[in-house]
Amino acid sequence: MGQATVAGTESAVAGSASSSEKDFKLVGYSNFLRKNPRTDRFPVLGFHHIEFWCGDATNTAGRFSFGLGMRLSARSDISTGNTIHSSLLLRSSSLQFLFSAPTSSSDPPPSPQSQSPLPSFSPSASHRFTLTHGLGVRAIAVRVSDAFSAFHISVSHGARPAFPPADLGLGFALSEVELYGDVVLRFISHPSPSPHSPSFLPGFEDLPTPSPCLDYGIRRLDHAVGNVEDLASAVKYVAAFTGFHEFAEFTAADIGTAESGLNSVVLANNEETVLIPMNEPVHGTKRRSQIQTYLDHNVGAGVQHLALATDDVLQTLREMRAKSPAGGFEFMPPPVPTYYVNLRRRAGDVLSEEQMKQCEELGVLVDRDDQGVLLQIFTRPVGDRPTLFLEIIQRIGCMTKDEEGKEYQKGGCGGFGKGNFSELFKSIEEYEKALEAKQQIAAA
């Protein structure tokens, strides 16, 4: 078994920043001109799965299953002969969440007959990860045409290797490079699905679909957002080894409040189906940046939130809110009532009167760009620390056809909620202020 590494600090580029990094400047949302140069260094076919490292996979996966309407689809644990770790896969349409926890206190000796279907999993690294970060995302996995080639091309263009290519059997392969902090970008390649191939990875036991099937309407991972300490070096590092292009950018002037702000860049693959935004804190504001608060509690860079797309955010939200009191996920407070006064002007040509009424009742934020409309809402942090949270979104518009005439929605339709960032910031600021007030009372 290979040895995974956990650094615990953000080091997007080794050594001092180059002159080009020092000259890195954002032009802001209004001046940014979107273009797609199609510069991927290797074919990236889409998101494959997200792996969370946690202390107990069974209970954590159960909470996410209940809260998000994702069914348990596959497993590898003691019941399947895996004595190294427990890994449970939740699935909702194309969205796949893998929850892994060590069942061994130390790393087993390397062996070609390893009982683990995830050769990159290390019990000792997982223990350190959870101790350092709490519940968090260890791997953003993307499907590539060849995990061996993607790894070698990435490393030749500056990527720091995390786990060398491994043949998983049945035509499946895995490799990993460092992304930011203790998060890895995992490359998965596999043949076209067949009746005899595993639905996830070799070594995982596929589980039957229950009836009725648990489903709140979540369909796919839209984007995975990371918080980093230095945006320039992080963007240059990731763009250099992937070839991903800049899809969007925001500055504190675009999306901040009077009290705090951030800078953000979104990187995308050729097809703009893999969107990786990264944020950095802005210093010198009245309040410490919320990104800095994340970095402090997470002890370094990491995944801040995952945006989960649904075809009907109102229905999905009703299902999720019904589960909130019984152990599901809680949501950030809604915006002030005046937020919805101009909703008809912003989206009245797309949303019905009933939909706009429900958006206000459920606290859904509504934004749009020159191509489509975005409906979004954010949960409170999902773990003990004020770090990782979830975003539930629906994109409306931007439909086009591929070469075969099949209709699909362009990536990032409706933008990333530029018009809603200040509302989100205000909501998080109020949440942080409430926590600070309780801490002061407890200390008194």
From TrEMBL:
Residues 46-201, 220-380 form the VOC domain. One of its GO terms (molecular function) is 4-hydroxyphenylpyruvate dioxygenase activity. The keyword Cytoplasm applies. GO terms for cellular component: cytoplasm. The keyword Cytoplasm applies. It is found in: Cytoplasm. Its cofactor is Fe cation. CDD domains: HPPD_C_like (cd07250), HPPD_N_like (cd08342). Residues 113-123 have a biased composition (Low complexity). Residues 100-123 are annotated as: Disordered. Belongs to the 4HPPD family. This is 4-hydroxyphenylpyruvate dioxygenase. The gene is HPD.
